[in-house]
């Protein structure tokens, strides 16, 4: 019962925050692709609300705040098996994320950011990567990371790459790379190669980002492409506003 109370409390928190929000801000920067971070950050006083629905009826709500120029902090909370008919809904432990945009970039050098991302995905999988309702995750948190982003080749085509250290364990030192290309200001194509540590654990993700409103976008994406039963489809909404 305490998990349901926590869910209701979190929902009321979102409603109260939305009540004080401005009408909306244009989504002028892409702070993330699907799982891969970019070097861009929200402006001061900007706030991003993101809702992701993914495998096993899980819903994750993420809130990021631009607290200082170039610095963002945020928190995420997920409810497992919230969607569907399951009677065993479980609210997972909250995670947090932070980002500091160190350098804006110039004609020759990319923008640079360092940060931390504690979000994990694929709850309930065992070490053999099969869903057995364990308390483990298939995808570990990204942990501390360094991200580089810049526009390349043609206008509107942006590339991001970097390295991350999950749980600050050097045995979990990984890389990531991705790109997004905006078509006619209405749709962006997203592609990324994440968790590059070895072939088995790396992930290919791809999707489309639709701009439904200057302040609202919808992502439809596939994760772990080509992995059979491990592959999944996700939907996520993002709303940007100012407080």
Write up this protein.
The protein has 243 residues and is mostly beta strands. The chain has one domain: Porin (Beta Barrel), CATH 2.40.160. It contains 1 helix and 15 strands. The chain has a 12-stranded antiparallel barrel with strand order 1-2-3-5-6-9-10-11-12-13-14-15. A hairpin with a 3-residue loop joins strand 1 and strand 2 (58-68). 33% of the residues are buried.
Number of strands: 15
Instruction: Give the CATH H-level superfamily.
Output: monomeric porin ompg
CATH architecture name:
Beta Barrel
* Overall body shape: globular
* Strand-residue proportion: over 45%
Distance between the termini: 33 Å
Secondary structure layout plus pairing:
Blueprint: H1 2-19, E1 46-54, E2 58-68, E3 71-80, E4 90-91, E5 95-103, E6 111-117, E7 121-123, E8 137-139, E9 143-151, E10 157-165, E11 173-183, E12 187-196, E13 203-213, E14 216-223, E15 232-242
Antiparallel strand pairs: 1-2, 1-15, 2-3, 3-4, 3-5, 5-6, 6-9, 7-8, 9-10, 10-11, 11-12, 12-13, 13-14, 14-15
